Amino acid sequence: MNDIAYANNLQSIAKTQIGSLPVSSPGSENDTIAIVELGNKIFRDINLSENRIQACITCHPLNGRSAGMDRQSTSRGTFGQLGKRNTPTILNIGFSNVIFWDGRRNQLYDQAIDPFINPLEMSLPSETELIQRIQNDPTYQEYFINAFPEDPNPTLHHVRTSISAFERSLISNSRYDDFINGNLIAMTRQELDGLKLFMEIGCTNCHSGFTLGGNGFGRLENPSLYNPNDLGKFEVTGDPNDRYVFKVPSLRNVSLTQPYFHDGSVSTLNEAIERMNAYGLNRNIQKQEIDTLILFLKTLSDKTKTN
């Protein structure tokens, strides 16, 4: 089979099994440019942490080649306090209905305020303090007038709405999507081999849909592979069946967002694949196949970033 015929056949299969990333996130229909710009300002404002040195973007860097997470095993809060879990990328988060590793939120609107008042993160004493700081900053006035002209007073609802809108706008653009959307030469033959292997061995059993994960849970059955003191979803639900159950992360931008797993214990993509070899795959994979999978996974990266 020649390369074009091979690519065309794989494109047809991948369209069905995986799909491509939509151009907009669900719920973004009413997200105006002004609302997104306000959310961006709040996201970057270090004055909204207790000692005014940290912003959302500190742990979720976006500028330049950064891919929405800080590449730390676990991030530190505004006083240097160590977080409990690895910071996930925020790119494409608008397509996820499972927020946080333990799934304690399922909507961006509900999640938006949490980092500001989390004692391990930005450490504000209350939601009231957050709103007061915004109200006392004159640079916000024009932003709120533009975003909410009928009611420009800063409120929790406005903050939640604008941060959610900004987060929904963070959609990556990859060579894989170019391929699925019609450019048959967007991926090399070796990368296509990786895509074919990814589908054949059952990676999509867990990393499913056009986000390749991010909307479901999985149980890590072997506590020797990670931090056994973190009980995952059980800490939210109290259901014994939820012990060691965690969100299955999206694989988009995965080659840019090491370290891996909820505890950030794995520094390389190669080791992460080796550890996942026994979880839900149709067969064990060889070292050379891992290298081939990595070639494919790199095509899921935003084209403005770097592998």
The total beta strand count reads 2
The averaged pLDDT comes out at 93
How many H/I helical runs?
13
Q: How far is the N terminus from the C terminus?
A: 30 Å
EC number: 1.11.1.5
InterPro entries: Cyt_c-like_dom, Cyt_c-like_dom_sf, Cytochrome_c_Peroxidase/MauG, Di-haem_cyt_c_peroxidsae, MauG/Cytc_peroxidase
Subcellular location: Periplasm
Keywords: Heme, Iron, Metal-binding, Oxidoreductase, Periplasm, Peroxidase, Signal
Would you kindly provide a written description of the structure presented here, covering whatever features stand out?
36% of the residues lie in helices and 2% in strands. The chain has 307 residues and is an all-alpha fold. A two-stranded antiparallel ribbon has the order 1-2. The longest helix is centred in the first third of the chain and has 15 residues. It has 2 domains: 145 residues, Cytochrome c-like domain (Cytochrome Bc1 Complex, Chain D, domain 2, Orthogonal Bundle); 141 residues, Cytochrome Bc1 Complex, Chain D, domain 2 (Orthogonal Bundle), CATH 1.10.760. The chain is built from 13 helices and 2 strands. It is found in: Periplasm.
